[in-house]
Design a protein that fits this description.
Chain B: One of its GO terms (cellular component) is mitochondrion. The complex is a heterodimer of chains A (about 210) and B (about 210). With about 210 residues, chain A is of the alpha+beta class. Chain A contains 10 helices and 4 strands; from the N terminus they run E-H-E-H-E-E-H-H-H-H-H-H-H-H. The two termini of chain B are about 25 Å apart. Classes of the chains: A alpha+beta (about 210), B alpha+beta (about 210).
Chain lengths: ~210, ~210
């Protein structure tokens, strides 16, 4: 099997999720930079050859392309079972996925800058929109993590899971891009600070431009 | 194992996805109605079940599962008969890709609460909802060109169809969208409508 190719961009949260998993499982792969700021993901070439939905990340595996970060994460877990990112037991797996989906469907799409921009042309109103959806999601997330995190280092139990891959970029955005007051979320912050020390997380940091 | 309990509202798309999977696999379950339009997801009794205040919630031997995709994957793992994911790993990924395109790329953005936060004006709300559904279904139609057969991925009913059915219903019946630009979606939906689970999971067939 040839090396998978990841289509990604350094500021893309959804790409960072996948990069954490690839690094954690030590999966050798190539990167193709797709500049979403320049709308490269909407180019006819990208949409016809890679992902018709015009989004990143996308993972190309032996000529097949998989898109949507959570679908890619599940694929990686099935094909590369070493250093698993999901627990073994079905209910536990469901709890990890619940955390992933809470962020991936309940927060990220709504705080997306393009969505905020569609809401209003005024910066302050966009920020209010973004903060509203992040806070709404984080309130629910803080409650769940208080029941699932063993020691405040990881989202579920005491090891890295796909939930951590999804949490990191969302919290980074909240703090670094939107300067959200994180005081109401001590559990989220404890986990985030712990995860940000991990090499596999640092590799995908938006400050590290992809080449 | 005691029967699972599904906290459900007939017209909740996210719950409908789960009903499709449960009914397709002939899993017996108890339904407890949580009326979304009457704000019952904020009732203290329901918040004791799911503090996040979301439906669907599936209670299995006292454990509460939430988020429709997490519940769907659990159902697939705990009840492997009549599988809803293909064996081939790339095909499985395609099913999940379609699920996520809908559950994160369309449904949250066309949600009534989000449109309501955008504007108080009903016409503007509809424009918002139309935009995101149209954008999502356009992407979905393109993806389905390669992977679909009788249903969304090949010829077997999968989780992708569980997510597709409620979204297409919303587009057609709630928002009265012009669906003529989505021939593949329309044909797949028509094929799906012949399945018994389609009928039994439909909002009109629910106790509420």
């Amino acid at each position: 099997m040839s090396r998978p190719i990841l289509y990604a961009f350094h500021v893309s949260s959804c790409s960072w999720r996948v990069r954490i998993a690839l690094a954690h499982k030590k999966i050798e792969h190539d990167i193709r930079v797709v500049n979403i700021v320049n709308r490269e993901s909407r180019s006819p070439e990208y949409m016809s050859k890679v992902n018709p939905a015009g989004q990143i990340p996308a993972l190309e595996v032996n000529g097949n392309v998989i898109a949507e970060s959570l679908a890619i994460l599940e694929y990686l877990e099935e094909v590369y079972p070493q250093k698993p990112l999901l627990p073994k037991e079905a209910i536990e797996r469901a709890k990890v996925r619940e955390i992933c989906e809470l962020i991936a469907t309940g927060i990220q799409p709504l705080q997306n800058p393009k969505v905020a921009a569609r809401h209003s042309t005024e910066t302050e109103k966009r920020l209010e929109w973004t903060e509203y959806y992040i806070n709404r999601g984080f309130i629910a997330l803080e409650k769940i993590l208080n029941t699932t995190s063993a020691n405040g280092k990881y989202c579920y139990g005491d090891s890295l899971t796909t939930a951590d891959c999804v949490l990191v970029p969302q919290v980074f955005n909240a703090i670094a891009r939107f300067k959200l007051d994180m005081t109401p979320y001590p559990k989220i912050m404890s986990i985030y600070n712990s995860l940000m020390k991990l090499e596999e997380v640092k590799l995908g940091h938006p400050d590290n431009k992809l080449s | 194992m005691a029967k699972p309990i599904l906290y459900s509202f007939s017209h909740s798309s996210c719950t409908w996805r789960v009903r499709l999977a449960l009914n397709y696999k002939d899993i017996a379950y108890e339904t407890r109605v949580v009326n979304l339009s009457r704000g019952e997801t904020r009732d203290p009794e329901f918040l004791k079940v799911n503090p996040a205040g979301h439906i669907p919630a599936l209670v299995v031997n006292g454990k509460v599962l939430a988020q429709s995709m997490a519940i769907l994957e659990y159902i697939e793992e705990a009840y492997p008969e009549k599988p809803l994911l293909p064996k081939d790993l790339i095909q499985r990924a395609k099913v999940r890709e379609i699920c996520e395109l809908i559950v994160s790329g369309i449904q949250p953005l066309q949600h009534r609460q989000v449109a309501g936060k955008y504007s108080d004006d009903k016409q503007k709300q509809l424009e918002w909802q139309d935009f995101y559904i149209h954008r999502g279904l356009t992407a979905l139609e393109r993806i389905l060109t390669d992977c679909s057969g009788k249903y969304a991925v090949g010829d077997d009913f999968t989780l992708a169809d569980c997510c597709l059915i409620p979204q297409v219903f919303n587009a057609e019946h709630r928002f009265k969208m012009d669906m003529s630009g989505f021939p593949r979606i329309n044909e797949i939906n028509k094929n799906l409508s012949e399945l018994p689970a389609f009928k039994t999971a439909h909002p009109d067939a629910q106790i509420d």
